[in-house]
Amino acid sequence: MSTEPYGEEVPLPHAVRKGPPRRYPETGVFYRALDREFPMIVRGEGCWLIDDTGKRYLDACGGAYVANLGHGVSEVADAVAEQIRKVAYVNGTAFTNEPAELLAAELRTLSPKGLDFAYFLSSGSEAVEAALKLARQYWVESGKPGKHKIIARTPGYHGNTLLALSASAREQYKKMFGPWLVPVTMIPAPYPYRCAPDAPAMTAEALEAAILKEGAGSVAAFIAEPVGGSSTGASVPPKDYFRKVREICDRHEVLFIADEVLSGSGRTGKWTAIEHFGVTPDIMTLGKGLSGGYVPLSAVLATKKVLDPIANGSAAFKHAQTFSHSPAICAAGLAAVRHIKKNNLVARSAEMGAVLHKKLTALLELPNVGDARGLGLLAGIEFVADKKTKAPFPRALKFAETFIAKAQDAGLIVWPNTGHADGENGDLVMVAPPFTISEAEIDEIVARFTTAHHAALEACHVRR
Length: 464
Ligand SMILES: Cc1ncc(COP(=O)(O)O)c(C=O)c1O
Prior knowledge:
Shape: globular
Low-confidence stretches: none
Bound molecules: pyridoxal-5'-phosphate
Radius of gyration: 22 Å
Strand order of the largest sheet: 4-10-9-8-7-5-6
Strand content: 15-25%
Helix content: 25-40%
Number of strands: 15
Mean pLDDT: 95
């Protein structure tokens, strides 16, 4: 086909994946890693991805906790196509649109009571940036401009743009950009596998101590993942942790931001993970699975209390992004949320989550598997050098990376994390499959995990 005046369409080079790793492929893609080959995925069906050689991969983490509905849901594809045919884009400064209105209304009914207003963006990092800026603007417009500090947790992750990265405890991402990051006060995250039950990290006392140390008059917001994502490997805080957080934040006039980019949208067996703890944050972020991955979509939800000083003050949130509130992305979110509701997929996440956790206990019998934990269809499996002392493997062994490679060979896609044990060492992998996963597919995860584990131990020369 001719694309005059610029000439012929460039075909996909036949040899794009053949031969040794290609740092510079013929097509010009700047890959996420420059030291290995990537299989070419051509199709997705439910929990499975299929590459151009016909190999099938069990997508046991929905990519990066994204494919909550499973792959290939034509209902969502049709809704997006229909909206794009009507109108794909209007600018949020001039117009509103039906999908944005309807999606906000759906999220209002699903979210913890009071989180009534939704601001749509495209990625989790953008939502976190916007949430933190919203907290700051709230205090400035409330006449308390001294409140600007952010408190976050370590381990913890909130994204890779510079403010979100500043609030994250990921040294491997932060080191290079240190001079550009802003100071954020870190408190220890609750991590039941590695914390005593009465540790300040577990009781939320660490938060109050940090607020008092910084001076409540200078603290704008506390941001936390209600159930740990990759950073603490699906660690679930004690039952009363967030009730205490809420009380502390209220006592010291600090906004509580729940980052539900990963844990929200049904992942833990309720629409949001914070619901397990029975409190309402002031601001909440959603992303990843909100659209099921059909388009990049995220949201910042806020209470009327947070909007009020802005509505009565400058009357505009000082955060402008071209694609905010776009009809095309909101149409995907709306179709995904309605698909989840129609098929009771949040209840299914809870139900199949219980099956998953029961079956994952078999992995505890494997050498060097120290813990398997989580909530709903979110699970973390932590590897250790010594099960008794919980000592991690030395980072130089690159166990998580080796495991991921062996899992991919075995047709299993899981998500790795490193550094959680002490900031540098620690290896774990995450399992977070689409909510449509069957019991037989969970058995397949366990079987392929076991194969990958033995292969990784052998490749890393770990003595058993
Ligand atoms: C809890 C949490 N917040 C924010 C983000 C950033 O989202 P994104 O990668 O879409 O920018 C992530 C990504 O993993 C996350 O897990």
